Amino acid sequence: MTRNLILCILFVSSVLCTNFQNDNYKYLQEVKRGFDEYITTDKRPSYLNESLAKFSLPNLFRDNAYIGTTPTKEVHAVEDDIVCGLCYLAANFIILERRKGMPRLHLKNEVAQLCQVFKIESDITCDGVVELNIDVMLYIIDNNVNVTGSRVCDILLQSSCNSTEFEWTVDIPEGQSPSRPEPVGDSTFKILHVSDIHMDPLYTQGKVKSCNEPLCCQVDQEDGDSNTGNVCGYWSSYGNDVSEHLVDEMIRFANTLEFDYVYFTGDIISHRIWSTSEDNNTKTIKSLMNKFRTGFNVPVYPILGNHEPSPLNVYEFQNTATSNLSTQWLLDLVETEWSDWIPESARDTISQGGFYTVSPKEGFRLVILNSNIAYIFNWWLIESDKDPYDQLDWFVRILEQAERNNESVHVLFHHPSGDKEILKVWSREFNKIINRFANTITAQFNGHIHVDRFQVYYNESNKDQAINVAWNGASLAPYDYANPSFKIYTVDSNTFDIMDIEEWTFNLTLANLHPDQSPEWYKIYSFKDAFDLPALQPDDLGNLLIKMATNHSLLADYHIYRYKNSESAVEAGCNSDCQKRYLCQLSTYVGTDSSKCSYLQELYDQNL
Ligand SMILES: *[C@@H]1O[C@H](CO)[C@@H](O)[C@H](O)[C@H]1NC(C)=O
Ligand SMILES: *[C@@H]1O[C@H](CO)[C@@H](O)[C@H](O)[C@H]1NC(C)=O
Ligand SMILES: *[C@@H]1O[C@H](CO)[C@@H](O)[C@H](O)[C@H]1NC(C)=O
Ligand SMILES: *[C@@H]1O[C@H](CO)[C@@H](O)[C@H](O)[C@H]1NC(C)=O
Ligand SMILES: *[C@@H]1O[C@H](CO)[C@@H](O)[C@H](O)[C@H]1NC(C)=O
Ligand SMILES: *[C@@H]1O[C@H](CO)[C@@H](O)[C@H](O)[C@H]1NC(C)=O
Ligand SMILES: *[C@@H]1O[C@H](CO)[C@@H](O)[C@H](O)[C@H]1NC(C)=O
Ligand SMILES: *[C@@H]1O[C@H](CO)[C@@H](O)[C@H](O)[C@H]1NC(C)=O
Ligand SMILES: *[C@@H]1O[C@H](CO)[C@@H](O)[C@H](O)[C@H]1NC(C)=O
Ligand SMILES: [Zn+2]
Ligand SMILES: [Zn+2]
């Protein structure tokens, strides 16, 4: 946010504020007056709600806003500066009141009311989420004398507030990994990639599939209406999570295909974010891991998603071990649950921070990162944002050893780096590491976004050269209106490069019409064929983005694959705004750098 607006909001000086004269700015001043009066008089002014209610910010913290150009959530029209200013005022108010001794219950009600007045989520969701999060917020305020509203908002709303205050670097050795042999592909093996299962034990056929909460089809929600079509189907429903029998079905069908390893890129727990608990999450995590253990007879390499803790997103990394706010229960749980697949020697780092490295085969190494700590909704970043768990530092040391040992590395982590909810400085440093070890890292694998995607990384010293690719596993959950799916990679047995990718899916609408039959799974595409590529090396993918920018029917094809031919995606289509947005998503890997995206968009416009 501009410095003058910050000063203007915090100090309301007519000189500083002369440039900000629109209506929203006037309402913002009313909000400030209301909070100030509350702080000085200890009484909630009667007009405060009315001033706050001038701003409507529905679904402010939900991502994935569109299918094509059709919004999948309400989109607010308030300027970034103003959203950020409101956040500064509200957060400063909460912090000040806490310092003055306002008790937990009272503060909790204030935060929940803010969530409700701004219509960020339904009253039920606001109450539930605030109840789950308030103790962490208070702990951080109580134990960090220097915490300010601006620090809170600069993290939580990093795209709106656009702060530059976060600045740290990781030590990376000079040089460049030696280049590796090109894959020949005469001997290969396969990897099954499953992501974002969001297994929902409360999923109930016959309930409403569209409701005011972030998740519907819940046992305690209203019955659906088959006349209007607002009713949850047997297997799952678009916009929602996954029944246990769909998880079993996915494992059954996957086993009719061949693969040697399973990559699972996180998100086990459902989107019932307003009522999670350590006990319930533990049960669901154990239950899914048990399905993997008994269902797959090959090693599974799992990672943690942002939904696994309770409350979701909140990974504590400051060793607040004595506090009941610690995430240690989760790290200890997965250390045990993953022990069938991860040797004991590799498990220390799991209990330390949810990351690990293993070598499944001679010359081949996996590095599993816990990127959730860099997610902007993780409150502990307010205390400290510098390389949580020293994980990136550890990553560099593992890569140095791998380089020395001539190993080929696959890196797995939940959030695609560079996405707008990943702390920008984290993705910038991560990208430096990718650049340094580009030849050692043969592929990256992500989840979280629930649609099919890949990201091309470029050489920082020569943006024409593509140097790495991250493949997204899409999701079993149709939460973002895509059909359920998984991928199978063909991998070169000598170099461990990705040779080809198949994506498997089924038509969920059709499957729900026949609950008594298995869904009709089919292979929707093979990557090389679909995009007519000689290979899937980084430069092939770099060339593909250029081809997409010039031949837009490739982007139309990508739109269908992205949602795996779901009805809403077919209906919505993807116009030129949507296609240009895709070009950016495929080429952005550091939140602060849009140069490749602008270049591809210009190329797109020249080829209309
Ligand atoms: C202000 O709004 C909140 C949320 O809608 C509501 O719970 C509260 O009762 C309102 N307070 C007043 C004084 O109207
Ligand atoms: C708070 O900020 C002051 C001034 O920048 C600094 O000297 C002090 O060490 C900080 N305290 C903590 C606990 O970070
Ligand atoms: C964010 O800040 C940077 C650096 O101050 C500036 O270059 C950029 O234009 C800003 N972006 C937005 C969207 O305000
Ligand atoms: C835990 O799950 C049970 C159903 O299995 C449910 O009744 C209960 O409300 C859940 N607890 C929380 C805190 O959500
Ligand atoms: C956590 O501990 C604090 C202080 O010991 C206590 O007040 C609070 O109720 C506890 N919270 C939970 C969820 O157990
Ligand atoms: C990136 O470009 C620089 C300068 O041309 C070169 O030295 C370096 O090897 C390139 N990096 C990779 C991974 O190829
Ligand atoms: C490094 O590994 C590759 C296979 O990934 C192999 O072809 C090459 O010969 C190895 N190089 C050395 C120096 O061992
Ligand atoms: C999916 O199945 C439904 C129900 O049979 C059908 O109307 C729809 O056209 C199918 N979608 C596709 C893309 O084939
Ligand atoms: C554009 O891509 C389509 C595949 O979607 C292909 O059939 C067509 O031949 C391509 N056109 C050109 C000019 O390359
Ligand atoms: Zn997810
Ligand atoms: Zn996620």
Automatic annotation (TrEMBL):
Residues that coordinate or bind Zn(2+) 2: 267, 306, 414, 448
Protein name as it appears in the record: Sphingomyelin phosphodiesterase
Annotated InterPro entries: ASM_C, ASMase/PPN1_MPP, Calcineurin-like_PHP, Metallo-depent_PP-like, Saposin-like, SaposinB_dom, Sphingomy_PDE
Keyword Signal: yes
Major enzyme class: hydrolase
Alphabetized Pfam families for the sequence: ASMase_C (PF19272), Metallophos (PF00149)
Biological source species: Sitophilus oryzae (Rice weevil)
Oxidoreductase recorded as keyword: no
Lineage, top ranks: Eukaryota, Metazoa, Ecdysozoa, Arthropoda, Hexapoda
Coiled-coil ranges per UniProt: none
Cofactor note as given: Binds 2 Zn(2+) ions per subunit.
Similarity comment text for this entry: Belongs to the acid sphingomyelinase family.
Disulfide feature: 115-126, 211-216, 574-578
Binding site for Zn(2+) 1: 196, 198, 267, 450
Residues in the signal sequence: 1-17
Gene3D superfamilies xrefs: 3.60.21.10
Keywords from the UniProt entry: Disulfide bond, Glycoprotein, Glycosidase, Hydrolase, Metal-binding, Secreted, Signal, Zinc
Gene Ontology biological process: ceramide biosynthetic process; sphingomyelin catabolic process
Cofactor section: Zn(2+)
All copies of domain Saposin B-type, residue ranges: 80-165
Purpose of the protein: Converts sphingomyelin to ceramide.
EC numbers on record: 3.1.4.12
Subcellular location: Secreted
GO MF, one example: acid sphingomyelin phosphodiesterase activity
Record's catalysed reaction(s): a sphingomyelin + H2O = phosphocholine + an N-acylsphing-4-enine + H(+)
GO cellular component terms given for this protein: extracellular space; lysosome; membrane
